[in-house]
Model the fold of this input.
Amino acid sequence: MSEVVNLSRKEQVIRKAAELFKEKGYAAASMRDLAQKLGIEAASLYSHIKSKEEILHTLCFDMAAEFRRSLESVEKEQNLTASEKLQKGIIGHIQVMAKDLTASAVFMNEHRHLSQPSLRDFLLLRINYINRFKTMIEEGVAKGEFKSTIDKKLAVMTLFSSLNWMPMWYDPDAAIEPEDLGRQLADMLVNGLRKDK
Amino acid sequence: MSEVVNLSRKEQVIRKAAELFKEKGYAAASMRDLAQKLGIEAASLYSHIKSKEEILHTLCFDMAAEFRRSLESVEKEQNLTASEKLQKGIIGHIQVMAKDLTASAVFMNEHRHLSQPSLRDFLLLRINYINRFKTMIEEGVAKGEFKSTIDKKLAVMTLFSSLNWMPMWYDPDAAIEPEDLGRQLADMLVNGLRKDK
DNA sequence: TTAATTTTTAAATTGGCGTTTAGAAAATTT
DNA sequence: AAATTTTCTAAACGCCAATTTAAAAATTAA
Done:
């Protein structure tokens, strides 16, 4: 009945589970697979976690909390143009992702296997997060910094799609740093591909 | 042993399967679920399809063929600027998607459950498709139409991510037409959000 | 109305799933 | 060294999975 420093083994289980969930998908990943990856029997897992879904819950909500924290710190900053705010929001998101690409992939692809009421809670967090990016874009339009003709929903979904897919192709060993990547994505979104005249 | 006009019931099965796979994910969707949706017993399905995976295979490769066809017809056109080509490629992709949003969602999210060698074949088709969009962007850079500073991989992945996520949020009953949506996405990508001075 | 074909079913097969239980082994604390 | 806690295991439970088989029912064609 100790509650402290119990983390080490449990975290090991969760990290390996993240790898497995990313690789095979939550539904296709079995607890026996997971146990084998850890070199133990499936039954042993249950000394560390309550259920398969608890692992998914932990992965999804921990990531959500980090994304939220990152966005909040950007929102607190003052005297930023809409472009700057957007850029910082994007960079923050990518930095959070880059810290754990595996968990990020699970967060993005597997959250739908959460059961109620967790699923509802998760989706609420997500829609809230997206809306806060949408607000940044709307502020940009209101201030005359962004075109008023743009479809805001399209803009924010494009941004969010792009962020969400990054864990699929971003190579952390490659030359490019999360901050650079974020800067470039923000630049592309704000200024486009077209060469200035 | 008839081979003709057998399509009707089989297609019905495949369409319902697409809905189910989109909703629950391939691995979590059972043949019993599917049968129930059709009002028959699970065993009856096997008069129409060979296996669960055959359904997934059909859905994924049929969509892939349609995307390919669409892109090829754009590539054939001549005397287009890079922006125009990109725009037409994007519009084509969205039109194909809009014709069957359910199958598109399966194509995007569930293809990874294909087993070898189908999975390999599918991924080859996909990388080829992406590379053809990348070529469009590179041509734009080569002609001086696009900035030379852009990260081409980032650009094409952003585009592709955005296209891939559309079936998740695009509402076919909403006011916006696939062609308009494509035009706007292309405009955002090429010209950015920033207001022209 | 037969004959042929398509569609469906009940029943079984084989196998994997998440999880529980009772307790052994190993590691840690006292 | 003894006591406590953590980690692990073998064995089982009940359930659900995809698929096969042989045959019945429904539909279509001759």
About this structure: Chain A touches chain B at residues 25, 27-28, 83, 109, 112-113, 137, 140, 144-148, 150-151, 153-155, 157-158, 160-162, 164-166, 169, 176, 181, 184-185, 188-196 (CB under 8 Å). The longest helix of chain A spans residues 52-76. Confidence is low (pLDDT under 50) at residues 1-6 of chain A.
